[in-house]
Write a structure and sequence with these properties.
The protein is an all-alpha fold and 528 residues long. It has 23 helices and 4 strands. A hairpin with a 5-residue loop joins β2 and β3.
């Protein structure tokens, strides 16, 4: 039982405090430093309860704290929506790994299915284990005799509520004066806000329920090694022994895919890497040939990795010769995929040179780098330590997100497109104005750089008509100079920040938004 392992009332009290912290930090607040503070509180609660109950953390898993705090802090540093979502997701996943491996086991021993199922197992058990925690907290609680006499009154009051509601409705319909007084009573401020209070109380209760169950799961619930597989993982592991592919079938699949990839790679060396002269006879321009297909090639690389992982899991190999032949063919396939990734990188580089950077193009660039690292790690572990592939995959996913945070995508995009503008005179100013507050310092520099450029470009979200105060419509120009487009956007951002009351709470503090506000204030010479 929970009470034999943990002081259930203490854990329950800590869970309720954490539930209240969720409301205090996140309700009606913009994303900011609140997540960082919450992670600090949650980790302090976990380790504090652990030391109180002499449940010390496993030292080999303490490295999880480093990426956990990094991604939590970055939610208050980068405002890019994609990064904010990914940083938050990374925090949740790392918290699940920390809970699962707090006292026993090693994260490095996870396999691929386990790395996916651990967050699901932690979430499920956190929801279920709150029940015995609450029961154990209430057991043994003795009320004072005076309070015991109040219990029948409390129960009677609860039973009377529906009766009072029906009679109140009928009496209000029967007498206008009574109905008027009742209406005045119901318009009291606390009653008008009752629905909000109920909603916030429900949010606190749900958060406390899940967090309390999670603390129990991390500290005391499991008596066996935490690396023990779940029933679903055990079932998946048993499938190849019963229904797995034969060696001949798998070899055929890999061999045919290798031949297809080999033919494609040969064309890449002839045309893409060979230059424009090889395309003359095909009546295809080099630009048209090169500036397409990168997303498809990245998809092929991802699917190829999934294919070799699936075949490696599902194929029955009886002898060392079969193992070595299978590994050799898979290694050849991965080598060909690496060449295709090089082709995708080349195509993306040419496309970026022609049209400039966007968020999606930058994300794909960085993804290709880390996908290459994953494929190289697969080749290494395939021959020497297959059970180590999952930890490399986890670290590569974290590396991808760390790289994006370090690059600051929105500012990077503005800087790269400004460099391209200096060479070509072309700049998609309308797109740059859609970027987050992370881009404001770079946009401020862009505004100075495009001053004096008289070329007209399309303005963002222009309908062609504007509404006048006298009720008439008049034609609106949908073109403006680069400086007008960027300047209007920066001024609009500044006015929005000045009048946004949701930014006043310290829980919404965000480094990027604060820096953008002060730079815009300096630019427009106005006081807050």
């Amino acid at each position: 039982m929970i009470k034999q392992q943990l002081r259930a009332p203490l854990v329950t009290a800590v869970a309720l405090l954490l539930g209240w912290a969720v409301d205090w930090l996140f309700y009606a607040k913009l994303p900011g430093i609140s997540l960082t503070v919450f992670v600090l509180l949650l980790v302090a609660a976990l380790f504090g309860l652990g030391y109180w109950h002499k449940r010390l953390p496993e030292p080999h898993n303490l490295w999880l704290l480093l990426p956990l705090f990094f991604f939590a802090v970055m939610t208050a540093v980068r405002e890019n929506p994609f990064l904010t979502a990914m940083n938050t997701l990374a925090v949740l996943l790392l918290l699940s790994y920390l809970a699962f491996f707090y006292a026993q086991g090693r994260v490095s021993e996870l396999d691929v299915p386990g790395s996916l199922f651990v967050p699901l197992r932690v979430g499920l058990h956190s929801s279920v284990l709150a029940v015995p925690l609450l029961v154990s907290s209430l057991e043994g609680v003795h009320l004072h005799p005076t309070r015991q006499r109040l219990l029948p009154v409390l129960r009677g009051g609860l039973l009377a509520l529906p009766v009072l509601f029906v009679f109140t409705f009928l009496l209000a319909s029967a007498d206008l004066v009574f109905a008027h007084q009742l209406e005045r009573l119901l318009t009291l401020k606390f009653l008008a806000e009752l629905d909000e209070l109920i909603g916030r109380a429900f949010m606190i209760g749900v958060a406390a329920w899940v967090l309390g169950g999670g603390l129990v799961y991390a500290l005391a619930w499991r008596q066996t090694a935490v690396t023990m597989q779940s029933p679903v993982e055990s079932w998946l592991q048993s499938l190849p022994r019963k229904y797995g592919l034969g060696f001949g079938e798998s070899i055929t699949i890999v061999s045919l895919v290798n031949l297809l990839f080999l033919a494609f790679v040969a064309l890449q060396f002839t045309y893409l890497f060979g230059g424009e002269r090889h395309l003359v006879l095909e009546s295809i321009t080099y630009a048209a040939y090169a500036r397409r297909g990168f997303f498809e090639l990245v998809a092929v690389a991802v699917l190829s990795l999934a294919l070799v992982l699936t075949l490696n899991w599902a194929t029955r190999r009886a002898t060392k010769r079969q193992i070595h032949l299978f590994n050799a063919l898979c290694s050849g396939l991965v080598a060909l995929v690496l060449v295709m990734l090089l082709s995708a990188w080349r195509r993306m580089s040419l496309y970026e040179a022609a049209f400039g950077f966007t968020e999606l193009r930058l994300y794909v660039f960085v993804f290709m780098v880390w996908l290459t690292a994953v494929l190289a790690w697969f080749l290494l572990t395939l021959w020497r330590a297959p059970h180590r592939f999952a930890i490399g995959l986890i670290l590569a996913a974290m590396g991808y997100l760390v790289t994006l945070n370090a690059l600051n995508p929105d500012a990077f995009i503005v800087q790269q497109n400004l460099a391209r503008y200096a060479q070509t005179g072309e700049l998609d100013a309308a797109y740059l104005t859609t970027l987050s507050a992370d881009a404001v310092p770079a946009l401020r520099l862009a505004l100075a750089q495009v001053q004096g450029d008289t070329q007209l470009v399309p303005t963002p979200a222009c309908s062609g008509y504007a509404y006048r105060s006298d009720g008439a419509f008049y034609a609106e120009s949908c073109q403006a100079t680069l400086a007008e487009v960027i300047g209007a956007n920066l001024y609009g951002r500044y006015q929005a920040m000045r009048h946004n009351r949701s930014l006043t709470g310290w829980q919404s503090f965000h480094f990027s938004r604060l820096r953008a506000y002060w730079q815009l204030r300096q630019l427009f010479h106005q006081s807050p």
